[in-house]
Write a structure and sequence with these properties.
Chain lengths: 180, 113
């Protein structure tokens, strides 16, 4: 139950919502137990139910344009192969020591700010250790889409955390970016 | 095809059988080095353990010998370690929630019976 609670909490960003989601997830799983295929990952099955519940509630609670705007990737243009955040970090803090200064709450906050598709992919891969194929099955998209969501989600998160570290003075911006 | 690649093929005695023709020489055959662009483009799949054995070895070799790319790999690894340890991994479902779920399931079970 802990894993489902963590997943629900990271998806929704609210403890109350997460608790509701967990209750409903287990209730639905109990009712639909005959649909569970023994031998398959129970955790994946519970996460799928939990995510579907979350998406349905979000749809009910928000107008369509709000959901669309939440899911829009606000980063501009195509992503370059060379990560521009790491280019800066290699210069300023190649060991990535700035990470040590960022508190857990900030990390969770930045994860919550990711568009939902990216957030789910990052949570399932980086925090829950699912494979690309498992994430594809769970979210109902091709593996290629999972790769792309992970790539973009991680890039956005890395930039958000790096920018936060710079704003807090945990890492110095490259010389060219220091304001006069 | 880059000049370097052509040279490598010539030295390896491979025929320059045109682009995209498949076979040994195309798409990173056994032991064929990968470029910085290729290695960085695959860094996520590499760290996620999603590359096949040959590609994994090629990318690993590139990061082991490329001084420009290695720091990018290190930062990517640091990011993952950091996320793993600082994104509420120790979070547990509260006891009252566990009790509530058990109650719900018990009453659902009674209703079914």
């Amino acid at each position: 139950m802990d894993a489902v609670f963590r997943f629900a909490l990271r998806l929704s960003g609210s403890r109350d919502q997460a608790e509701d989601l967990v209750q409903d997830t287990f209730l639905r799983a109990y009712r639909a137990w005959d649909q569970y295929t023994p031998g398959t990952q129970c955790r994946s099955w519970l996460f799928t139910i939990c995510r579907n519940l979350y998406l349905r509630r979000r749809e009910r609670g928000q107008r369509h344009d709000e959901i669309v705007s939440e899911n829009v990737d606000k980063s501009s243009g195509p992503f370059e192969v060379v990560n521009p955040v790491w280019v800066k970090a290699v210069e300023a803090d190649p060991e990535g020591s700035f990470f040590d200064s960022i508190v857990d709450e900030e990390v969770l906050d930045r994860i919550r700010q990711l568009p939902e598709d990216y957030r789910t992919a990052v949570i399932l891969s980086d925090l829950e250790g699912f494979t690309y194929q498992e994430i594809a099955d769970l979210t109902g998209v091709p593996v290629g889409t999972v790769k792309s969501r992970l790539f973009r989600g991680r890039r956005i998160l890395q930039k958000a955390l790096y920018d936060y570290a710079v704003s807090m003075g945990y890492v110095s911006p490259p010389a060219g970016e220091i304001e006069e | 095809m880059s000049i370097l690649r052509r040279l490598r093929r010539l030295l390896a005695g491979l025929p320059n059988g045109g682009q995209g023709g498949g076979g040994e020489g195309s798409g990173g055959g056994q032991g064929e080095p990968v470029s910085c662009q290729e290695a960085l483009a695959r860094v996520h799949e590499y760290l996620d353990g999603e590359l096949d054995e040959t590609s994994h070895r090629q990318v690993a070799h590139h990061f082991a010998v490329c001084q420009r790319c290695y720091p990018h790999l290190r930062l990517e690894e640091r990011f993952r370690e950091f996320l793993h340890h600082h994104a509420g991994q120790e979070e547990r479902a509260p006891d009252h929630l566990k009790e509530k779920v058990l109650e719900l399931l018990a009453s659902e079970g009674e209703r079914k019976d």
